[in-house]
Amino acid sequence: MQFTSIAFFLFFTVVFGLYWLAGRKNLKLQNILLLVSSYVFYGFWDWRFLALLVGSSAVAYYLGQKIGVSQGRAKKIYLNSGLILAIGTLFYFKYFGFFIDSFADLFSIKNKLTLSIILPLGISFYTFRIVSYFLDIKNNKLKPETDVLAFFNYVAFFPSMTSGPIDKGGLLLPQLKKERIFTEEAGADAVRQILYGAFKKLVVANSITPITQSIFQNYDTLSGSTVAFGAILFLFELYADFSGYSDMAVGFARLLGFKITKNFAFPLFAQNIAEYWRKWHISLTSWLTEYVFTPLVIQFRDYGKRGLIAAIILNFILIGAWHGPRLTFVLFGLLHGLYYIPLIVKDKLNKKKKFSGNFPTIKELGNIFLTLLMVCFALVLFAAPDLKAALGMYGRIFSLSLFSVPQFIKIKVLGLIGILIFIDWLNKDQEHGLEIKRFNPLIRRAFYVFLIFMIMYYGVFANGNYIYEQF
């Protein structure tokens, strides 16, 4: 049930109505409605995995209590048991088949058993929620949740179930235990954010998808300039698809009275790779920074800049591996980690750059262009199905045909990307891309009418899948 489908529109309309009408003054009833809605949403995809979701929630709730009240060796046993169960379940569904087949290939086992393991929807996201919950209890940042209904809602919260963001317990759990209030102003702003997310997904991302698929599937017959053009288009496709989903997730959560993690902060205008990752998939990068990178920095602190470089590279290898069991994902992460080395050497890792005016200077444009070029280069690894295809794409790009005129150039698609960039730039200092309440009512209405027209006229509704659902 995609956010952009009629089924979800009907589903959310019913949930919204019952939530605010029947449960308006009854927090427990609201939470019951929310949990049932989350399970219906998840079961609509595949009801068989509901047992896994409920079971994971129950085990996490029990172990969280034990971690909170235990001391010494017992605390470590409960903590390690929880981490092993959570990460082990994720590993089995996401990576086990890959390692079994790789082992068989390595030792030339001809009659190998190929495992077809279905990846449960959202398992990477809700597993990371559970793991952070355990670690926050262990680090005394969070007390074990005693409200079963609130905790089960935390794990299964449907607006951010399928593609994030990854909310930590300290953010979402308190909101599940206090009265939520709906205001017209907040509701209107949430709808604006949903509208812009739908525009990015249905109009921009879905218009680019057929082009990038054609280029990447036939790279060996195309010019280097066309493959390079495909990598550039893929950046905008991935951004519009993922940030569009995130905008809608945040918007739907706000309509239910929740504030969840902001996942994008206009990364297309980042002036170096560190700033790019501070603005891209924020919930994942902040999660890994807190639970992986920071402990590694402490562990490697005696090695100075070399230790910092090692910590960053290991962190980004994990970011790559999080996306799935492919060597290209690992290399994608490794490459981004290597991109950080010049910033570390020059002590510019944490230096934040602000634009000097309403329009970027030549230097600022150069920084943006170089950053996005680096990202596009790495995205070849992200888009390729395997290492052979990635090397083939790079081979085409670094050939003399790079200097030819690329194919698949469509003025409509370039225009749509231009509109996306314009709206993002206009609101780059705001909370989201359509936070335009500072404009007069006439201009605001013109924006709404324009985006609705673009969705109705240029929207591609056939491709409803989100790229990050597979992760």
Describe what is shown at a glance.
The protein has 471 residues and is mostly helical. It has helices spanning 6-22, 27-46, 50-69, 72-106, 123-138, 148-156, 169-176, 184-217, 224-255, 273-279, 282-299, 304-322, 327-339, 341-345, 362-383, 387-397, 411-426, 441-458.
The number of domains: 2
According to DSSP, the number of beta strands is 0
Termini separation comes to 17 Å
Structural class: mainly alpha
Percent of residues in β-strands: under 5%
> Uncertain regions: pLDDT < 50 for 5+ in a row?
111-115
Looking at the structure, what is the overall shape?
A: globular
Query: What is the residue-averaged pLDDT?
Result: 91
- Give the SSE string: HHHHHHHHHHHHHHHHHH
Number of helices: 18
Describe the protein in words.
The chain is mostly helical and 471 residues long. The protein folds into 2 domains: 6-180, no CATH class; 185-271 and 353-470, no CATH class. 68% of the residues lie in helices and 0% in strands. The protein is built from 18 helices and no strands. The protein has helices at residues 6-22, 27-46, 50-69, 72-106, 123-138, 148-156, 169-176, 184-217, 224-255, 273-279, 282-299, 304-322, 327-339, 341-345, 362-383, 387-397, 411-426, 441-458. Helix 3 runs antiparallel to helix 4 and helix 6 (148-156) crosses helix 7 (169-176). The protein is globular, with a radius of gyration of 23 Å. It starts with 5 loop residues before the first helix and ends in a 13-residue tail after the last helix. The relative contact order is 0.11.
